[in-house]
Amino acid sequence: MVIDCKHVWNNISGYLDGALDPAVLQQVQKHLEHCGICSAILDSTRNILILTADDRVFELPLGYSSRLHARLEAEIQGMSLS
Amino acid sequence: MTQTLEGRDEAQMIASILAGDSQQFHQLIRPYERSVYVMALSMLRNEADAEDAAQEACLKAYRSLANFRADSKFGTWLISITLNVARNRLRRNRLMHMESLDIPSEEDGHVSPALLRDWREVPLEILERAEVRQILRRAIAALPEIYREVFLLRDVEELSIKEAAQALRVSDSVVKVRLHRARTMLQKTLAPELKGLVPQKGRWFPWL
Q1: For chain B, where do the domains classified as CATH 1.10.10.10 start and end?
Q2: What's the burial of A38, exposed, middle or buried (CB within 10 Å: 0-12/13-18/19+)?
Q3: In the CATH hierarchy, which top-level class contains the domain B10-97?
Q4: What pTM does this model have?
Q5: Cβ separation of A80 and B22 shorter than 8 Å?
Q6: A·B CB contacts under 8 A
Q7: Mutation target vs A (from B62, B127, B151; most A CBs, 10 A cutoff)
Q8: Per-residue model confidence (pLDDT) at position B194
Q9: CATH of domain B124-195
Q10: How confident is the model at residue B118, as a pLDDT?
Q11: B184 contacts chain A (CB < 8 A)
């Protein structure tokens, strides 16, 4: 069965997660082989996921960890005293 | 979650903490500190609020550790507490500012991706530029809440579909639908914007 681009777009997320049914996967792969637009959409979506997953995107504020543990320590001490 | 958790027996750590070795709680949460902050920041969009919410979530987890059930991972449970803390704060802020709820319906229109012919490679060094990190954070922050949270859990914090569903208390299929929308929305916003910033070497056909 030949599928159109919109059908492929609807399955890009499932494709990236490796979660498509074998029959759908085969259709999508076949389409991607000859459709430059869809394979570029797939690549750019994958690129964006790679970029957003990088630890550099969200930086922790300086001293975050020590402030967190200090507050926890106060709680732990307080609770064990009570 | 970048830190490796292999070899940790979290059930044992939790049992020790509940039995009185409270100090172990510091070690228990260390690998999740970053996730807790990132989730809170992405929901609240403000660093000071996010840090405060992250602390509140960890304290809550400590106080209610006895209620933790081993049917989910500790990390998933902690993230779901964080989401609740952040949502409560958002609700409070909205009441204060009378803002609209920003929750689109599940069936809200179809999102089409940006049509690009060639942006096949991603040079990770572009992340050295503060401008690029800012663009990514802004695009994630601009997602409606229900899409933002699922995207962060799955694609930033790398939870499985099942774990994300547990943290959000929704079904696996709801996670999949929302994740798909979130990714498509980000592709649509970010692909054209980032493509302009990626050094162009003509058309890229890396397989040639």
Answers
A1: 124-195
A2: buried
A3: mainly alpha
A4: 0.80
A5: yes
A6: 144
A7: B127
A8: 82
A9: 1.10.10.10
A10: 60
A11: yes
